[in-house]
Amino acid sequence: MPNKTVVHPDEDAAAILEAIKDFAVIRIDLDGLITSWNAGAEKMLGYEASEMIGRPTSMIFTEAGRKSKKAEEEMAMAKKSGSSVDERWHVRKDGTIFWGSGVMTCLFDEAQKPKGFVKIFRDMSEQKRLTETLLRSNKELEQYAHTISHDLQEPLRVLAGYAELLKMRYTGKLDAEADQFIASLAEGAMRAQKMIRALLDFSKLKAPEGKYEEINFESLIKDAIKNLQFLIQERNAHIKFTSLPVLAADPQQMLQLFQNLITNAIKYGNRERPEVFISADETPNEWIFSIQDNGIGIAAENFDKIFDLFARLHEKEYEGSGIGLALCKKIVESYGGRIWVKSELGKGATFYFSIPKT
Ligand code: ADP
Fold first, then answer.
1. Are 333 and 267 within 8 A, CB to CB?
2. Cα–Cα dist 22/250, whole Å
3. Which of 64, 133, 266, 332 has its CA 20 to 30 A from that of 237?
4. CB 286, CB 254: distance < 8 Å
């Protein structure tokens, strides 16, 4: 049932509309002709009320908007569902354009018959430009990260290769200090190679392009377990899961997300018998997944830090690149979700992430 606005005569209404200076408030009849034009509309569009009353609203649309009959489309949508979102470029009297953002509402009489429209919007050009600039610079930064990590692979390969050669040919032939220098050189080159490879993987991760599939998360976990079979057997890990939902998402990304979290739950899990428990809770707006382990745990001061790129709490004791959780965060946030951890040192950790319902 559309949300229909019924208008009652109100003597103050005209005065209120006049007082609103930062919003254009325009009344339109069923033929699309303007019947009232407030001071905000005068300020925003440059036309006096006397110039606009009786004229079609399409006058404030761009040429492209007029050609594709946007004004008519807006009215039809408002009639059908009560209101219609108005987010588009509009044209001022002097020909300049601005990004108008607001809503067109259909007004109904007591008998629920449409009697006209009111269009309320404001100039959001600055915000629109800012968002576009941010999106552009974010894309550029991702491109830089990708190019740099890609182009650094080759010189690092040479460096690591020759460091290794030095180690093989000259260890024990120079003095002890030289042996130490060469070993550090080889180790540093290898670490840099690993980090650059991880950065390349990170920069390759694309935002989901809406190519979602219905995913049965129980089957997805079974696939993840199959892929991690070697690690699971090696560490004698036990993985359990409760009933999990079917949701639309990118299967590859979801698999990567779960594999990273399960791998960590085993890697940083109990040394004798890592146990991992996966479950999901439904709330009105989202699904919350959790991956619980019985491992070394994390101190509260590191709850945020571990999601940063290259952040590692156990540099020496455990193998890793410090990119897994940063990747998980990037995936979850690209769906509009959140990821967080609850833990106590020595008492295991539970990682949570949410996926909003669409
Ligand atoms: P990596 O495991 O390659 O080091 P991650 O980004 O996956 O990188 O994790 C970052 C850090 O967070 C790890 O180095 C580890 O110190 C900590 N961590 C991740 N998962 C767990 C966990 N389940 N229990 C305890 N610590 C964890």
1. no
2. 42
3. 332
4. no
- Pocket test of ligand 1: the residue of 312, 319, 329, 344 to mutate, having most ligand atoms within 8 Å of its CB, is 312
Which ligand 1 atom is the nearest neighbour of the CA of 293?
A: 23
Nearest Cα neighbor of 340 from 294, 295, 288 is 288
Does residue 296 line the site of ligand 1, with CB under 6 A? yes
Place of tokens 């080159």: 189
Asked if 239 and 278 touch (Cβ cutoff 8 Å), the reply is yes
pLDDT tens, position by position, 159-177: 999 999 999 999 999 999 9
* Ligand 1 binding pocket includes 208 (Cβ within 6 Å): no
CA distance 292 to 287: 16
Coil, helix or strand at residue 346: coil
Q: Is the distance from the beta carbon of residue 347 to the nearest atom of ligand 1 less than 6 Å?
A: no
Whole-Å CA distances, 275 to 219, 271, 278, 286: 19, 10, 10, 26
* Ligand 1 in reach of 268 Cβ (< 6 A): yes
Is the Cβ atom of 323 under 6 angstroms away from ligand 1?
yes
Q: Whose CA is nearest to atom 12 of ligand 1?
A: 306
How does pLDDT run across 252-288, given as a tens digit for each residue?
899 999 999 999 999 999 999 999 999 999 999 999 9
pLDDT at 1: 47
- Please state, in angstroms and rounded to a whole number, the distance separating the CA atoms of residues 136 and 90: 23
CA 301 to centroid of chain Cα atoms:
25
Q: pLDDT category, 16, cuts 50, 70, 90?
A: confident
Q: Ligand 1: which of 201, 261, 306, 321 to mutate, judged by most atoms within 8 Å of the beta carbon?
A: 306
The residues pairing with 117 across neighbouring beta strands, listed in sequence order, are 28, 106
Is any ligand 1 atom within 6 A of the Cβ of residue 57? no
Structure-block tokens of residue 274: 């890592």
Per residue in 59-68, pLDDT (tens digit) is 999 999 999 9
- In the chain the first and final C-alpha atoms are separated, in Å, by 20
- pLDDT above 80: residue 211: no
Segment 320-349 mean pLDDT: 94
DSSP strand pairing (286-293 vs 349-356): antiparallel
Q: Is-contact 78 104, C-beta < 8 A?
A: yes
